Amino acid sequence: DVKVTQSSRYLVKRTGEKVFLECVQDMDHENMFWYRQDPGLGLRLIYFSYDVKMKEKGDIPEGYSVSREKKERFSLILESASTNQTSMYLCASLEGLNTEAFFGQGTRLTVV
Amino acid sequence: AQSVTQPDIHITVSEGASLELRCNYSYGATPYLFWYVQSPGQGLQLLLKYFSGDTLVQGIKGFEAEFKRSQSSFNLRKPSVHWSDAAEYFCAVTMEYGNKLVFGAGTILRVKS
After folding, report:
1. Residue B5 reports pLDDT greater than 90
2. Per-residue pLDDT tens for A65-91?
3. Is residue A10 over pLDDT 90?
4. Which residues contact B27 (CB under 8 A, 6 or more apart)?
5. Which DSSP string do the residues of A26-75 spell out, in sequence order?
6. Cβ–Cβ gap A40/B6 under 8 Å
7. First and final C-alpha spacing in chain A
8. How close, in Å, is residue B79 to chain A by CA atoms?
9. Closest chain A residue to B34 measured between Cα atoms?
10. Which of B32, B44, B103 sits opposite A97 (nearest CB)?
11. Chain B nearest CA to A80, separation (Å)
């Protein structure tokens, strides 16, 4: 089974902290994605990566950055966490555009 | 820009009734289309997908969806809803270029007995 693992299920951070969300996939997929999920807004794409060291902005990249140093790992970074970044964060990977995306269980981040 | 619209935020149906969830996309070329379901507290599960060929696709749990290019739609249907179908449903699209996977805002399905 394909596995996409997010390092934490729940996180509580203080405003202004630098936050790292880690995602690891074990299927050698080329493409990885970070989304945030908010009620009524669905999954909004923050950043995605189609290769090591390659990244593309999604629809809501402001306040976030990403890192992909190895194919299996895609990190989301909140440089200075703010309360409006309180959300559920989902990581996904897929082999190619005509294949199924596999999701991690999500990280519920609360910024206080 | 590529976008996905799910016009219904909430839908309530009676158990045993038929269901149709709407999805429209905005993209010039042939899209790859998906429906995912998320039960409360759970991750996303793929229901079905369309890439090419027959425009009526069958999925898991008795769901089906029809791709209509002329209407830029990919509506999800089920002939008889079960209480366990209560969940949030997401339509998603990938485009041939750019490797983006974009989701709609979701439709919350409530099933009343």
Report:
1. yes
2. 999 999 999 999 999 999 999 999 999
3. yes
4. B2, B3, B72, B93, B95
5. SS--SEEEEEEEETTTEEEEEEEEEETTEEEE-S--TTEEEEEEETTEEE
6. no
7. 36
8. 25
9. A100
10. B32
11. 26
Alpha-carbon distance of B71 to B52, in angstroms, equals 16
User: What residues of B are in contact with residue A33 (Cβ under 8 Å)?
Assistant: 101
Residues in chain A: 112
Answer yes or no: do B105 and A41 touch at CB < 8 A: yes
Option in B43, B49, B105 nearest A103 (CB) = B43
pLDDT of residue A98 exceeding 90: no
A104: chain B residues, CB-CB within 8 Å: 43
Residue of A nearest to B88 (CA): A42
Question: At residue A32, does pLDDT exceed 60?
Answer: yes
What is d(CA A98, CA B109) in angstroms, rounded to the nearest whole number?
A: 27
Q: If you average pLDDT over residues B13-18, what whole number do you get? A: 97
Measured CA to CA, the distance from residue B2 to residue A21 in angstroms comes to 27
pLDDT for B30 = 73
The chain B residue lying nearest A45, using CA atoms, is B102
pLDDT digits (tens, 9 = 90+) for A43-69: 999 999 989 989 999 999 999 999 999
